[in-house]
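Reader question, answered in our methods column.
A reader sent in the components of a multi-part assembly and asked whether the whole thing could be modeled at once rather than chain by chain. We filled in our standard form and ran it. Here is what they sent:
COMPLEX SIZE: two components
ENTRIES:
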Amino acid sequence: MPHNLEDIEIISRLSKKDKDALYLLYDKYSGALFGVIIRMCRNQVMAEDLLQETFIKIWQKIDSYDASKGKFYTWAYRIAKNVTLNSLRKPDLLIQSEELSVNTRKATLEPESDFNGLNGAISKLEPHHQEAISLVYFRGYTHREANQEMGVPLGTFKSYIRQALVLLRESYSHELIIIGLLIETF
Amino acid sequence: MDRKKILENGLLEKYLLDELSSLESQEVIAAIASDEQLRTQFELLEEDFERMAIENAISPPDYVKVQLQTKLHKSTKKSKERIWLYAAASVAVLFFMTSFLMFNRWQNTKTNYNSLQNQTMVLQERLNALEENYILTNQRLKTINGPKTIPLILHGNDLVPNSRAVAYVNHENKMVVVNAQGLPELPNNSTYQMWSDVDGEMIDMGLLPTNEELITLKYIDKAESLNITIEPAGGNDHPTVEKLIAYVTL
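And here is the structure of the entire assembly that came back:
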């Protein structure tokens, strides 16, 4: 796997329990991971806790990261997703103990629109492509759950994803060409 | 698993999103490792995925990082504290083990001490018995071996042939000691009895059991002879003359 050399160096420092290495990774990836976590749980406070938990897990489990199997971000994303899904699956103690209280997690959910908006290349895709990518990449849905959410057959959903990914690739490689041209020009 | 199946089923995306079972994951990992084209495809997918995530990043508030730093600092501190805790626990365990060993040793020592004390008591008793025995033997020796003691042998007559008793008489101390072990044993219903002859009258001196080494009898003044008869068990007031078995003149 091609890796950023900087990442490799930081990760090897992290394996030796260098806390500063973790903070460097935090600076680099916390935004991307927080974007995923907050879109999944749609609660600012909860997302902050889960982001912290994610980095604690990264700190504890860095020895199980195998660079030959994927990039660091992919690995960290999976941790963030699992941490968030586990937390959402947990029976809400607040709801169980104080059913009459309005202060439950559901009640504290932020309006959906706050976190649903997507930026960058994906925002330029067709709405159904955007939604398909958003559901599985940012909202933590499995393909099976996502196609039900969108109300389309699984096969159709899979082709949405595939088309969206192809369009993204095109968009990114196009950008690369432009950047290449710009570099050559100047 | 072949490339076509992986691509058609969108397994690379699912693998990336951690949606596969561990068996399927293993298969995809193996396929990526062995198939260059698949590997390139997966790398591009990862790149796009990361890029898209960065484009959609939302910056967390700064205090989240501060909280993370605080938490990590505490947890490493805690683990250091834990080392001390383990050390303390180890010392405690060591202490208990040592105490246990010492307690066992103490118990063993106590048992040994008790048994030694018992042995000492037994030895002390034996020593006392030996001492008493020695004093008695010494007295007897003095009694029968003194210069003023006269040993007299009473030979058995035909009633008890080849037998004898020995009497030790000390006129100064007015003492008579007899060893009757040389006489044959009698049935339970009879006993030997000794008499002094004073002016023709037989005066009782006492019984002579054959199982004792030295028997002290009554000393009778002016006795002319010592006589032994066989009498009914418990002794008799008057001697049975027919059963006179030995005598000696003083």
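What stands out: Residues 3-89 of chain A form a domain with the Rna Polymerase Sigma Factor; Chain: A fold (CATH 1.10.1740.10). The CA atoms of residues 81 and 111 of chain A lie 21 Å apart.
Send us your own complexes using the same form.
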